[in-house]
Amino acid sequence: xxxxxxxxxxxxxxxxxxxxxxxxxxxxxxxxxxxxxxxxxxxxxxxxxxxxxxxxxxxxxxxxxxxxxxxxxxxxxxxxxxxxxxxxxxxxxxxxxxxxxxxxxxxxxxxxxxxxxxxxxxxxxxxxxxxxxxxxxxxxxxxxxxxxxxxxxxxxxxxxxxxxxxxxxxxxxxxxxxxxxxxxxxxxxxxxxxxxxxxxxxxxxxxxxxxxxxxxxxxxxxxxxxxxxxxxxxxxxxxxxxxxxxxxxxxxxxxxxxxxxxxxxxxxxxxxxxxxxxxxxxxxxxxxxxxxxxxxxxxxxxxxxxxxxxxxxxxxxxxxxxxxxxxxxxxxxxxxxxxxxxxxxxxxxxxxxxxxxxxxxxxxxxxxxxxxxxxxxxxxxxxxxxxxxxxxxxxxxxxxxxxxxxxxxxxxxxxxxxxxxxxxxxxxxxxxxxxxxxxx
Length: 440
What we know:
Radius of gyration: 22 Å
Distance between the termini: 38 Å
Largest sheet: 7 strands, antiparallel
Helix content: 10-25%
Number of helices: 11
Low-confidence stretches: 1-38, 416-427
CATH superfamily of the largest domain: 2-enoyl-CoA Hydratase, Chain A, domain 1
Structural class: alpha+beta
């Protein structure tokens, strides 16, 4: 049989300090719940796969008590079964994807696609960022490029965004895009290729008077993020920066352990050995409850305050950094309200698939974690796709620098706060695992 009593948490890891290095230890816990961590490969029938999904949800889903009373044998796919089992009042995130895609992304930082992300602005779709050396990059896509048509369909005919989801999942290797760059329209054909992504897409040191301010855009919390953070914080420490701006405007989250590591690099001695975040499972799995603590790392900055740029795409592990640091240091949020995901997944592989249902809620040292409506910023300002990321005149970075220099929000943000928002969430264009990648 494929049921075992050992449950391997895929999402969350502990770090064990070994001098200047860190090593990952996979956390496991014995319990009396039958959990489908393996499957008899001789039986990957739809009925058996559905049984795995149903049992996993019944035993480990955070909101299992709200699941409808259904017969899994009535379904012709695991995806449709999961969709009907979700607690729709809260759950916008549970998904099933390919085990290989999941592993490639989280372990290697690789996905197959075109290499760009999009945002929807007043019904028009623009490129928000492009991964270097990707097919999109080679074809001239850049921040602010407008997408006019996809395979001959105008944006207004994209059928309530469903076609974006089809494009992101479609195994076909080539798609035609009509785009506009600097008011010049042209057609390009992109071919999907493996994209090696960088979690840190911009970093620099900005000066205000006699202050050195470290700034970087962090786009995810995956295993390769750890070495990128070590390299960057080593530079920040050598340069003796005075302030830190962490830009997570497009960061959809990832592994709690990596978020914990970033928080360690920020807080250092101030937060050392204090609780960072508690993962709290349902009442059937309280033995799995886990607390991540802060530790001081080699390149920790020991900051008593941090400035974080956010949007409604700042989600999950990104929100953990914000929420986890709040009890100890001054966290100044600039931008717009975060996405509101104070819950997470552990996940399980079966039949070459990865099932990721919501399994735990995330609480900081003060027990705060009920931010399903998002975390509110101190200063409100909208994303500015018509300036290069990291440019001082880009609205969100400019506002953050203004706040650092003056200790108050600018008049511009006061106007934004009362103005009806004219930017729709691009995070809702994607769903499931694609939302975590947040790129086509």
